[in-house]
Design goal:
Phosphorylase Kinase, domain 1, 9 helices, Aminoglycoside 3'-phosphotransferase, Chain: A, domain 2, 43% helix, alpha+beta, globular, single chain
Length: 322
């Protein structure tokens, strides 16, 4: 990072100097990196710096490196900056996220300085989860969705999620002709016309959650695709990221029930309002599942998430329009 950004980190954290501890990961398609930065002379031991260099992007690993794709990614970092500047401070313990210390831009570069969750109780990640961790994430999603229910997304994505149809015309065009392709717009409209919209995370996969050591609580990171929408988009995507095809038929209904119980509690047990939300969102859950399935069929037709369970759910959704 340049000296200007180094100074920003020092000013934001009260550090006298900084040093790089490790590169946590590179950003998708080479748009920068996420670094863990050690601090000298600060009350904090370290911070996480998301360092974005949009002009340094390289080829997409699956070949999606068009100008349209580039502009979507650039906007995603603009949205994430907006989220941390003007929205993130509104999250409470029901939907814990890292505290933002600074957001700064310089020419074509952006720096987001965040609390290092490794220095908090949310210090663990998972590549596989037990029901305990799944429930922790569902509690987080319920808290988040309840917290921002009926909020106008403003300068966030009008429709959250990274697979939203209007941002994925290239993937739609690559799909083989099929009833699903013909129904893509109808599925998108069905979800968009939800009477009960909230702010959704937009990329609520297992990799974007951090856990307490006992696994009972979760915090979330990565808000590039946060925006308006039906909460079922987050739920369908999350469950699909951590359940196998064999687990889905039995487990999905159980976890849906758990989520709605948590949502009711976070809506302060406003029974009438909650019942209206639950009724609509339960009906929209399979549409959210089919919506992501549509994206996968165009983006990566051999992806492991394309399975018989998803095909069946999607087929039932498509047939509902006939």
């Amino acid at each position: 990072m340049n000296t200007y950004f180094n100074n920003i980190i020092c000013q934001a954290t009260g550090a006298s100097s900084i040093y790089e501890l490790e590169e946590i990961q590179s950003l998708w398609s080479g748009y920068g990196k996420i670094l863990r930065i050690g601090l000298v002379g600060s009350k904090y031991k370290s911070v996480v710096a998301k360092y974005i260099q949009s002009d340094d992007a390289v080829s997409h690993p699956r070949g999606w490196d068009t100008d349209f794709s580039h502009q979507r990614k650039v906007k995603s970092y603009e949205v994430e900056s907006e989220w941390y500047l003007n929205w993130s401070f509104r999250c409470d313990d029901s939907c814990r996220i890292p505290v933002c210390f600074a957001v700064e831009s310089f020419e074509n570069e952006v720096l987001i300085v965040l609390e290092d969750l490794n220095e908090t109780q949310f210090c663990e990640t998972r590549v596989a989860v037990s029901p305990k961790e799944i429930r922790a994430c569902l509690n987080w999603l319920a808290g988040f969705h309840a917290h921002f229910m009926k909020e106008d997304p403003g300068n966030l994505w009008k429709q959250g999620t990274y697979w939203h149809l209007n941002t994925r015309p290239e993937e739609l065009a690559r799909m083989l002709d099929s009833p699903l392709k013909e129904s893509a717009i109808l599925i998108d409209e069905k979800l968009f016309q939800s009477s009960f919209k909230t702010i959704i995370h937009g990329d609520a996969k297992l990799a974007n959650f951090c856990f307490t050591k006992d696994g009972y609580k979760a915090a979330a990171v990565d808000f590039q695709y946060v925006g308006g929408g039906c909460g079922m988009k987050d739920l369908a995507y999350f469950l699909g990221s951590c359940l196998t095809e064999e687990e889905c038929p039995m487990s999905v209904p159980i976890y849906l029930e758990f989520y709605f119980e948590a949502l009711a509690q976070n809506l302060d047990n406003d029974k009438f309002y909650f019942q209206e939300v639950e009724k609509e969102w339960r009906e929209l859950f399979p549409f959210a599942w089919a919506d992501f399935h549509r994206f996968l069929k165009g983006w990566s037709p051999s992806h492991w998430k394309i399975n018989d369970y998803s095909e069946r759910i999607t087929r039932e959704v498509v047939e509902s329009f006939e």
